[in-house]
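Example 3.2
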Amino acid sequence: MEEERSLDQKKGEERLLDKIIEECAEVTHVACKWKRFGGLDYHPEDILQIPNYQLLLNEMQDAETAFNTLRAEIRAAIG
């Protein structure tokens, strides 16, 4: 039973870490778009014309949520 629990925990940890990696990559991607094209620019095919600064804020929020989830899991694991 302990081995199964450890395997489940490991899979959960991997999912959380994968989420952190994904969100950080998305923040990096949008930050590079802002640097290259400007914060007020938007993708020419974006019907909603969402500016790069807003995309970055959105991705930062997603990353912050992922960080908070991982932080809570760490705190729960260590007591």
